Amino acid sequence: MLLKIVGAIVVIWLAFAVLGVVFKVLGTLLIVGAVITVGAIGYAAIKGSSNRKQIR
To answer: pTM for this one?
Structure first.
C-alpha cells in the first residue's frame, strides 16, 4: 500500500515537472517569436519606404 502511494506521488511530481518545462519553453518561444516579428516588421518598414511611389 505504501509503495502505491509513493508511486502515485512520484508520478504526479513528474507530471508537474514536465508541465513546468513545457510552459517555460512555450513562454521563451513566445518572446522569441514576438522579437522576430517586430524585427521583421521594422526591417520591412525601413527597407520598403524608399521603393514606394507617391500618388500625385
So the answer is: 0.62
Q: How far apart are CA 11 and CA 7, in angstroms?
A: 6
Write the CA distances from 44 to 39, 48, 50, 54, integer angstroms: 9, 6, 11, 18
The string over 27-39, giving b where at least 16 C-beta atoms fall within 10 Å of a residue's C-beta and e elsewhere, is: eeeeeeeeeeeee
Tell me the backbone φ, ψ of residue 54, rounded to 5 degrees.
-80, 145
Ordered mean pLDDT values, 10 residues apiece, the chain (56 residues): 95 98 97 97 82 62
Residue 13 three-state SS:
helix
C-alpha gyration radius of the chain: 25
